[in-house]
Amino acid sequence: MRRALPDVYTNTGAMSPHASKDADYVLGRSTAEHRRLVEQARFLRPSTERVFRAAGIAAGMRVLDVGCGVGDVSFLVADLVGPTGAVVGIDLDANAIAFAEQRRSAMNLVNVSFVHGDFRSEPLAGQFDAAVGRLVLMYQADPTQALRAIASRVRADAIFAFQEPALTAMPWLTPDLPLLTAVLGWTREVFARSGAHRDVGAELYWRMRDAGLVPHPVPLGEVALDVGPESVAYSRWATLTRSLLPKIVEYNLATEAQVDIETLEERLRSEALGKRATLPLFSGLLIGQWARKPSLE
Q1: Which of 193, 222, 216, 199 is nearest to 138 (CA)?
Q2: What are residue 215's DSSP bridge partners?
């Protein structure tokens, strides 16, 4: 039985001096969205862990988690670095940081801490052996410049490991599923209009090179899939659509009546089971790329 997620939210989030230049975070920062992020992290974790292990994140490292949100990537990295390592997560969303801290406390984790602030300017004590992030560079005004800023916060020869989307890639077509196709279309279009870098995952190798890093030449691209009556895909797409609904309506992509959010999950389930379909859990590819900051030698 899943425990209810705590309500620890207040409207105390401060704006970064860079925030007006970054993409609109169209998913919002509500309690419901933070809960959705926790659910999303459950199916993204195996893929993210593969990227981080391939990058060399290991025991004893001190790691900076950029755009940590409600803490799931930080908790994953904490398992990799172990009790002799440490993780510092940083995020602009004060409510997300409060929730992450409450989760950390409930888990009795002593090798994780959280900071509310902008990774580009917030004072951070000590040296970092690595910097990681998932679905964060896509929202930066200039992902390459963001990587340069992160590089200024870590030591020479530090590891960079990021996992970002290529939302216009279509590795899993759904021609016989018109409702899911509509949901995927709304998702991609909302992110396109928000100014987000929808395909930054496919650009990571070159952006890391341009930022002065030394990227690994073989990135890891995956698409998460699920199938069957108990699939999490139906609730995943319904809850994501709920978070995006204000923008779907604002951008005139569909009306609330057309989306019919209260019945969307069950309609997605009925459609998929009727076609005996295997469903994507992510809108496009999720691409992991890692690199190193050059040594001083």
Answers
A1: 199
A2: 291
Q: Residue type for 144, please?
A: T
Q: Taking the domains of the chain in order of start, what are their residue ranges?
A: 19-171+195-223+282-292
Reported confidence tier of residue 21, pLDDT bands at 50, 70, 90: low
Where residue 63 falls (left for φ over 0; alpha for ψ -120 to 50; beta otherwise) is beta
Does the pLDDT value for residue 19 go beyond 60?
no
Cβ atoms within 10 Å, residue 217: 7
Q: Which residues contact 280 (CB under 8 A, 6 or more apart)?
A: 172, 174, 184, 223, 224, 225, 233
List, for residues 132-157, the tens digit of each pLDDT value: 999 999 999 999 999 999 999 999 99
Q: Please, what CATH class does the domain formed by 19-171+195-223+282-292 belong to?
A: alpha beta
Cut 0.85: pTM above it: yes
Secondary structure E strands in the chain? 62-66, 86-91, 112-116, 130-134, 159-166, 214-215, 220-222, 225-227, 278-280, 285-292
